[in-house]
Amino acid sequence: MNAPATSSMPRALSPEYRERLMRMAREVSFPEGARLFEEGGHADRFWIIRTGTVDLDMRVPGRQAAVIDSLGHNELLGWSWLYPPHTWHLGAEAVTPLRTYEFDAADVRAECRRDAEFGRTVAEWVGRIVAHRLQAARTRLLDLYGPYGSGGMR
């Protein structure tokens, strides 16, 4: 259930804002199976995926973690960095070797405060992603644990 195309960074931000954001990036890689963050941890960075796949998961008491969504090329990994209290709402694990652009959240938030229009654009981009992922989480959890799945009767 990848995010809609309009939520990928190249389509969501103007060339000027993309360039400004990318000046704050550094390239990092993760091996298959690496945990990038854990639900409840401090969200101090985020990533744009260059290559590879990441699963987003959430803890379910008494069960193994439920995979909520999978992310790939050009998608934003991590949104909790933007909204206080800056705590991860999900966990993330590399399903394949992963190459990303990594961003320091404090630096990006500071740039958003310096330029209100840039900040509004970033917040709208991230907000669209949050809305999509919340719907994906709801659907996936209903499929996994609901009595009739996501298509059942009320």
Give keywords.
globular; 4-stranded antiparallel β-sheet; Cyclic nucleotide-binding domain-containing protein; single chain; cNMP-bd_dom; about 150 residues; RmlC-like_jellyroll; cNMP-bd_dom_sf; alpha+beta; Jelly Rolls
How far the N terminus sits from the C terminus, by CA atoms, comes to: 24 Å
DSSP helical segment count:
4
Fraction in beta strands? 25-35%
Structural domains: how many:
1
Rg from C-alpha positions? 16 Å
Q: Predict the CATH topology.
A: Jelly Rolls
Q: Describe the biggest sheet? A: 4 strands, antiparallel
Helical/strand content category: alpha+beta
Query: Secondary-structure element sequence?
Result: HHEEEEEEEEHH
CATH arch. level architecture: Sandwich
Mean pLDDT: 88
What's the CATH H-level superfamily name? Jelly Rolls
Unreliable parts: 1-6
Strand order of the largest sheet: 1-8-3-6
The strand count comes to: 8
Shape: globular
Pfam family, one: cNMP_binding
Protein name: Cyclic nucleotide-binding domain-containing protein
